[in-house]
Structure formats: C-alpha cells, structure tokens
Design brief:
By secondary structure, this protein is α/β, with parallel strands linked by helices. Helix content is about 40%, strand content about 5%.
C-alpha cells in the first residue's frame, strides 16, 4: 500500500509521526518494483517510496520483505583498464600556475565539494570569468557493480551527495557565483557547456582510480576533437589539480608520473640507512610504516587557502542563469519540478532515506556541516583528546571523528583538519590521541598513493600480490573459527544474508544492518564483517567491497578497495595470517554488554547477554525464554563458530618479510 504526499516541508513531520518504533530490514528488489508501480500512476511518489523502503505501510504494520537483495547485473560498467600512468592530464604544481587565466574557465567539481582550501577553485578563480559545474554522473546512478550487480550508489550516499551540492550552490551564491548542476555523463555535458560559453580552460581535481581517469581522458579527447572540428574557436587547456591528500603529491619523496621533475625531496633530505629507519627508495614503499616514517621526518603540509569573499563572476551571457536552456538541469530544492522540465533525474536523488533514530550520528552532507563537525568534535566536546582510547567504539557520535564522509566528498580539506589538530596540541594538549588522528589521515593518503602506484591492482582478486615489486603475502595461517557451515545455504544466499544482516551471527548482523539503514559502520565493525565474509563465509572479497561501495556514505575507492585488499591478505601488508577477526572474540571485547547488538537486532532484546552472540547454543526452552524462535523472528545461523581462545594458529611470518609494525597496531585482530 502506498499514498502520495507532496514533497513539501510538512511531509517530514507527518512521516515522523507515523514512524514505527523499530525498522525491519527490507530489500531493494521489492522497493524497485514499488517505485515503478508508483511512478506509473503518479508523478511524485517520493514519500510513498520511502515508507515502503523500510517495509511498512501506512497502517503502521511491519511488512518486512526479505526477498533476495542480490539483483542481477543490468548495466555493468566496463573495465577500462586505465591506470594513473595512462592519464592524459597530470596535476600541475601550484607553484607553476599562471597568475591569471585569460578568458573563461570551467571548474568541474568532483569529489572536492567545498570552497575552503580548494586548490581547483583557487586556480579557476584566476580566470577572467568562471563557470562552476557539477554533473551527477548517470553511469554511477544507473550502473550496477561488476560482480554482485549492486547499485553503484545506494540511497544514503545519493542523498548525502545531494545535500553537499545544495550546500555548495548556496556557498557559491553567497560569493556572487552559481553552480550549474547537470545530470548525465561529464563527457557529454562539459563539452556542450564549453561550446556554449566559449570556455578556454577546464579545471578539475585529479582522481587516481581507473573509472575516474577514464572519464578525464575521454573528456580531454572529446574536447580535442571538438576543437579539431572547428566547433570551438581555440583548443581548451585542461588543468588537473592535486586536491585530496594531506601531503601534496609534489612534496612526497617518491616519483610519480606527472610529478614535476625538478622537485626531489629525496635529493634534498636523504634518509639515512639506519636500523629501524627504512631507506628511501625510488619506488613507492610497500608498507605503511616506511611511508609514514618518511613523511613524518619533515611533515610537509601545505598552507590552507582562504576562499575570497567575492569570486570571479560568471561570464556575461550566463548571468541570467535561469533562462539558459540547459536540458537535464536539476532544480534541486524542489525535486517535483525536475519532471516538469522534462528531465528524468536519478530517482535516488529525489528520495530522502528515512533517518534511523538508532544511527550513531545524524549525517548530513555539505561543507557547512563538515566545518561545524570539526568545531564540535575538536573544540566543543574535545573528543580528540581521547581519540586513541575511543576509536574502536561502535556506538555514539564521538568515539571517532566521522570526518570520513566529508573527506570522501571533499566537503572538508585534510589540511584544515591537520591545522586544527596542531592548534589543539598548542592550546589544549598534545598526546597520543592527537597524534593518532594524523596517523589515520596518513593511512588515507597511503591508500590513495598506493592505488596510484599499483594502478588497477586494488580492484583485482589477487590485489597487489600479482604486482611486481609488491609484497607477496599469503593467506596461509588464517584459520576460520567456523566449525560447521549449513550445507543448504548456497554462496549466493550467504552473500545475501551478509548484506541483509541475516547471517544468524548477531554481532555481524548488527553491523551489517547499521550499514544498510544508515550508510555508516565503525572502523572496527568494518574489519570484523570483512574478515567474516572472506574467512568464515569463504566468499570473494570483491563482493564485499562492492557492497560497501554501494552502501557507504564515505565511500572512497582507494580507502575502500585498499582496506578490503589488505584484509583479504592481498594488499600492502607484509604479515600473513594475521588479518582474521574472530567474530565472537570481537563481540565479547567491543560489545561486552551487547548494547550494539541489541540496538540493531531488537528481536534479541530478551536474550541473555552471556549467550546472545551464540544462537546455535539456544535450545527450544531457551528460545521460549528469550522470546525469539530461530528461523522465525531471527534467522537460523548459517555458520557455527568455535569460541575464541582455542585453536588459533600463530601467524607465520617469513624471515625475509619486514614486519609493518603500524599495520599491526592499526589492523590488530
Ligand atoms: C573494509 C573497510 C572498508 C573501508 N572503506 C572506507 C571507505 O570507503 N572510505 C573511507 O573513508 N574509509 C574507509 N575505511 C576506513 C575507516 O573504516 C573509515 O575511514 C572510518 O571508519 C571512518 O570513520 P571516522 O571518520 O569516524 O574515522 P576516524 O577514526 O575518526 O579516522 C579519521 C580519518 O582517518 C581516515 N582513516 C581512518 N582509518 C582509515 C583506514 N583504515 N583507511 C583509510 N583511512 C582511514 C579517515 O579519513 C577518517 O575519517 C574502510 C575500512 C575498512 C576496514
């Protein structure tokens, strides 16, 4: 059943009033069918879609639909095989930028959705006139993942992204600018705008992974073709800008393609070959420890750029913006209008996933929220001071920074976070926790540079193990805690159960439901569920990475695929056999009172805390006492696990393999 309510502000209050106390897990297939039914009959079925998404109707009855959520592949994005080295445009060092750019520049916003410390905006602002553009890339909104056939962008990230765009457009308007928002492929949209406004410079933040580089290359080629065919008066100059990392690519002591040849920190500050301090190599290091030690020797973090109060203006013919005939435009505050102007915007952008009251943090996209989160977490609550002790938490807003969602979309600059941490160290206190946040930001950089260095390897099953020069790790020594696996459960059903949070292993289910219903999961839980998929369910790790890609608010290709590679034992970890996270051990240690488990598995509310993590031990009498029947209210476990403490084989480390001590601390099991 569904009803249609107009998408105006009163709607949310109404929704809130009708919300049931608990959300069951629903599926994507049922939702799609409902959405199609609804859209055939009504033009704006937005609210109805949201309600049915959570499997309940207006009478307030729960109708959990537990159909298989693994959709079959429909539109699979091609594997382009393009690596960073194949890029047609490399970032230009900011020291070499011209002081002014004659003519009009088009700034293509990507994962850099902010005004502060935005290097691409800094360059673009030197032009005579400026067009700011964002394109909702239809290939991600309509595409499916390669192996699991999952949506590339789930509803939580889609909405978060939309909020980022609304906020960015507001910020640009307050500085005399505008944001052109289009839906389609940047390769089609941008050349059209270039032609229409006689753009001379295309400026964008450089990305490092295959699909993003393929898009950049296709765009550069298309613009060259357009110029060759005489459709524009002069060739467009393309400027890629380095924007995403804490440490600028030019300040690294490693060579990368496109890096300015005369800058070599290696020559300027050689690191001695002493015990414990790894030697600088001509290639990017294999281990995080080596990378970190070299970076920390001089901590070259560039100054942040302040966005001026008034930005370079739009070209004259674009100033009366609303009259421009730009088909496909999305009037984003009023989604109902999108259909009126004839565009068919991605449905996901029009839906606001119901905010789950159990979420650890009320996530909203945009630079404004990002800056206030920085202020709150570092200065108001001063949570930074105890970050090292709390960072493995599972519940609540402050056990960790929650910066990842903002960093992934570029709503906050990592350099701004660095400055705030240093400021906090000077004014309040400097301790292991303050250092640890920077340590984690370096991991983020490390995954990005690794992805660049090893090209497509992070997306391949054998990961970096198939790459020359990378550490040859092996999964031998990892021993699963599974003692019995249900034979009637196929690999496909195992995957579905994992995605839905219905494996019958409560700690895993709780974490997977949190992800599904909020788009977020703590770092600790991510490690445990990933290890479970790989080692206990025996599934291809890339399926897990794809599901995370679909669901995570903070999805970042380098961090996601890099971490998955790492946990699968095919990444940048020289240790072998040490990435196993025993689900029961983790649950006992990090959720000792089962509050996290019960939060997301409310059907287990009456279960004794001492037994909650091991449903396979519940006999019929216990189930009656716990008011839960296995196979009915809660799924029959698909695996039975042995208790921790016994039968763990010590990790085998070959004598020739250097031990990455940071990895041990960061990913300890
Ligand atoms: C299987 C798996 C997949 C992951 N996928 C992503 C992803 O797609 N995007 C993403 O940003 N992070 C990913 N992470 C890393 C990490 O889990 C999240 O960055 C972190 O949980 C986000 O919460 P936070 O911002 O509160 O982190 P905090 O603990 O407050 O850390 C501060 C920042 O440091 C960085 N950071 C911390 N841990 C890591 C890490 N292991 N790898 C890279 N950067 C790190 C993040 O930018 C984070 O915002 C993944 C980890 C695992 C194990």
């Amino acid at each position: 059943m569904y009803v249609v309510l107009p998408a105006h502000s009163g709607t949310r209050q109404l929704q809130r009033g009708l919300r049931p106390a608990l959300h069951p897990i629903s599926d994507g297939v049922g939702v799609r069918a409902t959405r199609q039914r609804a859209s055939r009959r009504h033009r704006t079925p937005l609210v109805a879609v949201q309600w049915e998404w959570f499997g309940w109707d207006l009478d307030g009855r729960f109708e959990p639909d537990l159909t298989d959520i693994t959709p079959k592949p429909e539109k699979v994005l091609p594997n382009t095989g393009t690596t960073y080295a194949d890029s047609l445009v490399f970032p230009t060092d900011s020291k070499r930028w011209p002081d002014s750019l004659p003519g009009t520049a088009l700034l293509w916003f990507r994962n850099d959705l902010r005004l502060h410390d935005n290097e691409a905006l800094r360059l673009a602002n030197r032009a005579e006139s400026l067009l700011c553009v964002y394109v909702f890339d239809e290939r991600y909104f309509f595409g499916k993942s390669r192996f699991g056939g999952f949506l590339r962008i789930g509803e939580h990230r889609a909405y978060f992204l939309r909020e980022c765009i609304v906020d960015l457009r507001q910020a640009l308007r307050s500085r005399g600018q505008e944001l052109i928002v289009e839906i389609g492929s940047p390769v089609d949209v941008i050349p059209r705008l270039v032609q229409k406004f006689g753009v001379q410079h295309l400026i964008f933040s450089k990305e490092v992974t295959e699909e993003e580089i393929a898009t950049e290359n296709a765009l550069v080629r298309t613009l060259a073709q357009v110029a060759a065919q005489g459709q524009i008066s002069a060739p467009v100059q393309c400027h890629a800008v380095w924007n995403a990392t804490l440490v600028h690519i030019e300040d690294l002591p490693y060579p990368f393609p496109g890096k300015a040849k005369d800058i070599s920190l290696r020559a300027e500050s050689p690191v001695p070959k002493t015990r414990g301090t790894p030697a600088v190599d001509r290639v990017f290091p294999d281990t995080f420890t080596t990378f970190r030690r070299l970076v920390e020797r001089s901590w070259t973090v560039r100054e942040t750029w302040q966005c001026p109060e008034v930005l370079t203006l739009l070209p004259d013919d674009a100033s009366n913006f609303n009259t421009i005939d730009w088909s496909g435009a999305l009037p984003i505050e009023y989604p109902a209008e999108a259909t009126r102007i004839g565009a068919e915007p991605p449905k996901l952008l029009l839906m606001r996933p119901y905010p789950d009251p159990r979420a650890c943090y009320d996530f909203h996209g945009g630079e404004t929220v990002a800056l206030s989160r920085l202020e709150d977490w570092i200065w108001e609550t001063q949570s930074l001071a105890s970050y090292k002790e709390t960072r493995n938490g599972l519940e609540g807003p402050d056990y960790s920074s929650k910066f990842s969602c903002f960093l992934a979309h570029g709503c906050i600059s990592p350099r701004l976070i660095y400055n705030a941490v240093r400021d906090f160290e000077r004014r309040v206190e400097s301790n292991e926790s303050t250092y640890w946040l920077l340590f984690e930001l370096l991991w983020r950089d490390f995954f990005r540079f690794t992805a660049m260095h090893h090209g497509n390897a992070i997306f391949k099953r054998r990961g970096l193990r198939g790459v020359r020069g990378a550490s040859k790790t092996s999964q031998s020594g990892v021993r699963s805690a599974v003692v019995r696996q249900r034979e009637d459960v196929s690999p496909d059903a195992r995957l579905t159960a994992w995605c839905q949070g219905r494996t019958g292993v409560p700690f895993i289910d709780a974490a997977m439901r949190e992800l599904r219903l909020t788009g977020f999961m703590s770092n600790r839980a991510r490690q445990v569920v990933a290890s479970f998929l790989i080692n206990d369910l025996g599934l291809d790790w890339r399926l897990g990475a794809e599901w995370f890609e679909s669901q995570l608010l903070d999805y970042d290709p380098c961090s996601n695929w890099g971490n998955w590679c790492y946990l699968a034992g095919v990444g940048n970890d020289p240790r072998s056999g040490s990435r196993y996270f025993h689900p029961l051990k983790q649950a006992y240690e990090f959720d000792p009172r089962a509050t996290f488990t019960k939060r997301w598995c409310p059907e287990l509310f009456w279960v004794d805390n001492a037994l909650i993590q091991t449903p396979w031990k519940w006999n019929r009498k216990m189930q009656e006492a716990f008011q839960v029947t296995l196979g009915d209210q809660y799924p029959e476990p698909i695996v039975t696990l042995r208790e921790p403490g016994r039968a763990r084989t010590p990790p085998k480390v070959s004598p020739s393999t250097p031990v990455d001590t940071d990895a041990a601390v960061h990913h300890e099991s």
